[in-house]
Amino acid sequence: MLISKLPNVGTTIFTTMSQLAAQTGALNLSQGFPDFDGPDALREAVARHVMAGHNQYAPMTGLPALREQVAIKVGSLYERQVSAEAEVTITPGATQAIFCAIHAVVRPGDEVIVFDPCYDSYEPAVELAGGVCVHQSLSLPGFSIDWQKLADAITPRTRMIVLNTPHNPSGALIESADLDRLAALIRDRDIYLLSDEVYEHLIFDGREHASVLRHDELYQRAFVVSSFGKTYHVTGWKTGYVVAPTALSSELRKVHQYVSFAGVTPLQWALADFMAAHPEHVSELPAFYQAKRDLFCDLLAGSRFSFTRASGTYFQLANYSAIRSDLGDVAMAEWLTREHGVASIPISVFYQTPPAESRLVRFCFAKREETLRQAAERLCAI
Question: Is the pLDDT of residue 1 over 90?
Answer without folding.
Answer: no
